[in-house]
Amino acid sequence: MLYGGIDEAGYGPMFGPLCAGVAVFEIPDLADGALPCLWQTLDRVVVRGRRDTRDRIAVNDSKKLKGSHGKAHPLTWLERGVLTFASTIEENGHWLDALDDQHLLDTLGIEPIHGQWYNSTTDLPLGRTVEQLRIDRNRLCRCFDDAQMRCVWVGGRAIGAAEFNQRVETAGSKAIVNWEQILALIERCWIRADGRPLILAIDRQGGRMRYLEDLGIAWPSANRRVMTETPEASHYILSLQGRGPLELRFEAQADQRHLPVALASMTAKYARELLMLRLNRFFMSHLPDLAPTAGYVQDGRRYLREIEPVIETTGITVQDLVRSC
Question: How confident is the model at residue 32 (pLDDT cuts 50, 70, 90)?
């Protein structure tokens, strides 16, 4: 059966894309109905924290893994987890031989985003060597073999400012735009499951407790059943002709309960950070003394003021660059 997670990154910033990530694993069928804790299953090579005397791979909520530690690149821990897990997927066997951010985004299924500021590429990896990543990959593959499991998909989606603004105007809120992106990834996962039972864990959307009606709008032909709806968790089973059963688990702090959600969070954040590197590179090529931005509102306002001359000379449309909310 398949066990996966979905999460987003970049919900609040005014610059850069809204991204979502997904990670799906093939695991043995559940004997007692209880999902395994994959942090425990993969304990030999995986850990939650980035400081570890056994040099294990950190997998956690992306906000806990981005940042500098000594001389390390700020994206080191995000990158290590995403690239290592993705490289274990069978079709990515020689993936690490010549990798840049465009190759990664293509592999994740992230389509090109409108804007000349996204036209450059970045060589990868940034914080590890290829040889170190190969060692990580081999260790993780051996652990997968012992646990009779494997990673079958690490993917994502990204919505740039131009599309984001258009969709917010149509939908009425960015919460709906984010929900639609989550639904699109659920649909991809359900199709890729190819008839196998699939469980997807997803973080609560704005603290909501009930999702049955919205799931019916997304899949009107599906049979839907509520398993539980509580302040902590809302679980549903969907069945649709020609597909295997889909169980959706919307849970508070899902990235702390489910390793696939944590890895999805890391994937979304890593993809967003790579795209922000491109954005900053473009404007810094015009303004060498410009300080880069992470895109969040307070610093984003400073950044927007400072890049006004570039916007004017290059003919950039602000609505294509800056998110409306």
Answer: confident
Q: Which CATH superfamily is domain 2-277 in?
A: Ribonuclease H-like superfamily/Ribonuclease H (3.30.420.10)
Asked if residue 158 has pLDDT above 90, the reply is: yes
Rounded to whole angstroms, the Cα distance separating 8 from 63 reads: 11
Contacts of 289 (CB under 8 A, 6+ apart): none
Domain boundaries, the chain: 2-277
pTM, 2 dp: 0.96
Dihedral sign for Cα 245, 251, 257, 259, please: positive
The DSSP H or E segment spanning 185 is: helix 174-192
Burial of 120 (0-12, 13-18, 19+ CB in 10 A): middle
- Distances from the Cα of 27 to the Cαs of 30, 36, 63, 198, 215, in angstroms? 8, 9, 27, 10, 26
Backbone phi, psi, residue 246, to 5°: -120, 120
DSSP 160: -
